[in-house]
Structures are given as structure tokens and as C-alpha cells.
Amino acid sequence: STGGATSNNRSTLPWINGVFDNTDTAAKVDAFETMAGQQIDLVDCHPAWADMTSNWWYDQHQGTGRNIMLSAPLYGPSGIGVSSASTWGTAAANLAAAGFPQAFFRPGVEFNLANESPCTDANWTTWATRFEEVADAITAAMPNANIILCPNEGLGAGNLSQANSIALVNRLAPKIKWLGPDYYDQWEPITDTTTATARFGTSSTFGTMDWWLAKAQSLGKQLCIPEWGVSSGSQWAPHAGNDNPFYINYLMDWAAT
Fold it and tell me: pTM (2 decimals)?
């Protein structure tokens, strides 16, 4: 979900209300709307790199009034040494032509994790160059694109220092509209005001939600939370909150203020 929106959203909420569906089908989103009793503004899509310029992952949402968010690695199998701007630019042009002229884009999603296109102390300046190229290609194809720089909370996997994280954000600020940390209820779950205060932090505790909010404000950017939610099952046990209303209520109250 993204914050700070005051436009006439389908959801009628004061923010853009989004959902991720790993089957990329309109039927699943329709069912979610029915369950929630609330319309969805945006669908977060995570196509494989080879499918970035295809249309199957968004075409079912054409004409629904929902927007699209494209979340993908910054670069493809050729690696960080090769510009991926043409792939992102083509995807943006396709989305614009399909009726999504203000789509959202997360190149290099969760950049400080050990994922398909990680940003590290060893490569961060090259990573920043690749991001700048991608952002320019997206904007050329879609002037009103919503480009998000998306970290995970804190230091992520620990391969990008605090100093270089800040330097990266400062350098890329001219290319983005949103700062968007992902923030799930895990490591550690928020179950009371003590744990909530620890994880949401302050404007001076790096990587917490209050730090990211203050950083966005200082750069004149909007803050969004592209991915958030409860965390359950065995993957993160015992570091997940499972079905945790406290976390949901706390985050919603925080966003409302």
C-alpha cells in the first residue's frame, strides 16, 4: 500500500490500497475485494525477467480501474555490468499503451537483501548507475510514472552499510517519486507497544519506519509501504507474529497519523 495519496481512489481510502496476487489473475483480486468489502486501487505484479515485456501478467486488469505496480530485479541474467534500461523502458511503454499511464515501478525491489539484483558495498555505485538508466527509460516511455526505491527495513542482509545506503538514497532521489520500505511482521513480530516502539524507532534510528519517513520528508518524497502484512507458517518461526491483529492495527494507526 502507498501513503500520501489524496486523489479519487477506487477504494475511497486516503491512500492507494494495493494487493499482491502470485497467480496474476483478476479473479483472485475480485475475490479479495469481495472478502474485504473494499475496492482495490493497485495490483502488485512480479513477473519473471523473461516475461517483463509480455502482457499476460497485467492484461486481465485492463479496464478494471486498477493500476499496476511492476516489481522486478533491477537487471537480468546478464548481470549488473549490462544496462537493463531497454527492458524496463519497453515494459513501461507497454503498460502506458495498455491504459496504465501512471503505473508504479519497483526496479531492484528490496535492494539491500541477498536477492537477484542485490546492492552491496562492493557494487553500490554501479547499481546506482543501472537504476538511473532504468528510471530514465521508464520516464521517457511514461512521463507520469511512479518510481519507487524499495529497501527492506534496517540493514537488510547486512551487505550494504548504513553510510552507503544513505549515499545511495541521496544519489537516486532525483529519479524517484517514492521511498518504499517493505515491512512485514517478522524479525521480530510487533505484539505490544514495546516491540512496536523498537521496530518503528525514531527519525534517528536508521532503517526503522520513522527513519524512512523522516528521510522521505527531508528529500521531498512520498513514503509508501509496498509490501506489508502478517507473517506465519514455518519459514520464519519463531520470529513471525502469525495472525497478529496488534501489528495490523498499529501499522494502520501509524499510517493514519
Answer: 0.95
